[in-house]
Specification:
The chain has helices at residues 12-27, 51-62, 84-91, 107-114, 130-144, 162-171, 191-199, 211-214, 234-240, 248-251, 282-301, and strands at residues 40-45, 66-70, 97-102, 119-124, 150-155, 177-182, 205-208, 220-223, 259-261. It has 304 residues and is an alpha/beta fold. It has two domains: 7-128 and 289-301, Aspartate/ornithine carbamoyltransferase (Rossmann fold); 130-285, 3-Layer(aba) Sandwich (Rossmann fold), CATH 3.40.50.1370. The strands form two sheets. The protein has a five-stranded parallel beta sheet. A four-stranded parallel beta sheet has the order 2-1-3-4, with helices on both faces. Helix 4 links the parallel strand 3 (97-102) and strand 4. Helix 2 (51-62) packs across helix 11. The radius of gyration is 19 Å and the shape is globular. It binds phosphoric acid mono(formamide)ester (CP). Residues 49-52, 123, 132, 263-265 line the site of phosphoric acid mono(formamide)ester (CP).
Length: 304
């Protein structure tokens, strides 16, 4: 039995295999309609979500399976003080696979240690979000046709942005990938990711506060939201929340084939006028998330 807690647990070959399956699902959806007949997915979400929870649920329904779970810790016995370990031990008797989101880093890992069925990390605090990364990878693959020879700008909250942390981990395995880390000083990428991933693998990266200066060199721009829920001090959030707003004027100096990604939800960081720009990929990215979650469910359940 295998869980997915961190994107680094997947080999490059396995990522390729998941992408191939997702593309086959896109091309031949009918073939997959009964693959999970009789199987149940439990979605245990202790933190708000729209895309991740609903795309997991849509994924399981489109595979012919069923879904149970809760969308908020207030609606579960966590509100009475039940531990993650006990909840998962119980739910793994009701479901064949579990997707868990939790505000505490490491909670899905703890869950996987007490579960009788595979556990998928659907986002843990400011740590990791591996299935968002699978959505990002399919989007990059479909947009660029490659993972190597790319300059990727990561912009916004690089400190708490779990999607950023997971995507850097995944993309660092490919040849000639460079990162431009664009953030205010207060929201820079954590040192442990620079040391353990970028420095250890000799990945070229630069840090800047200026989106305008960075944008001309980028093949991919990964925008992120400044996350109110991760701040201890509301004044800091208010000061930093609108640091970066991507608009038409800023895109004037960008490459014609730039791909703009964002895990969503967005607040102000991408102006809605950009949505009609052919370089905007973020809504396709949400659909790609559903297909990659379908592929992952099949893999972890061992369905051919
Ligand atoms: N990208 C993402 O995780 O979105 P949700 O918070 O809506 O699930």
């Amino acid at each position: 039995m295998r869980s997915l807690i961190d994107i680094q647990e997947l080999s490059t070959e396995e990522i390729d295999e998941l992408i191939a399956t997702a593309k086959d699902i896109i091309a031949n959806p009918v073939k997959y309609r009964e693959k999970c007949r009789g199987k149940k997915l439990a979605t245990l979400f202790y933190e708000p979500s729209t895309r991740t929870r609903l795309s997991f649920e849509a994924a399981m329904y489109e595979l012919g399976g069923n879904v149970l779970g809760f969308a908020s810790s207030d609606n579960s016995s966590a509100s009475k003080g039940e531990s993650v370990a006990d909840t998962v031990r119980v739910v793994s008797g009701y479901a064949d696979i579990i997707a868990m989101r939790h505000p505490k880093e490491g909670a899905p890992l703890v869950a996987s240690m007490h579960s009788l069925v595979p556990v998928i990390n659907a986002g843990d605090g400011g740590h990791n979000h591996p299935t968002q990364t699978l959505a990002d990878l399919l989007t990059i693959n479909r947009e660029k046709g490659r993972f190597s020879d790319l300059t990727i700008g990561m912009c916004g909250d690089l400190k708490f942005g779990r999607t950023v942390h997971s995507l850097i981990g995944a993309m660092s395995r490919y040849d000639n990938v460079k990162f431009v880390l664009i953030s205010p000083d207060e929201l820079k990428l954590p040192g442990y990711i620079k040391q353990e991933t970028l420095d250890r693998k000799n990945i070229e990266y630069t840090e800047t506060r200026s989106l305008e200066e960075a944008i001309p060199s980028l093949d991919i721009l990964y925008m992120t939201r400044v996350q109110k829920e991760r701040f201890f001090n509301e004044d800091d959030y208010i000061r930093l929340k609108d640091t970066y707003i991507l608009n038409e004027a800023k895109l004037l100096k960008a490459k014609k084939d730039l791909s703009i990604l964002h895990p969503l939800p967005r607040v102000n960081e991408i102006s809605v006028e950009i949505d009609k720009d052919p370089r905007a990929c973020y809504f396709e990215q949400t659909l790609n998330g559903k297909y990659m979650r379908m592929a992952l469910i099949l893999k972890l359940l061992g369905v051919e």
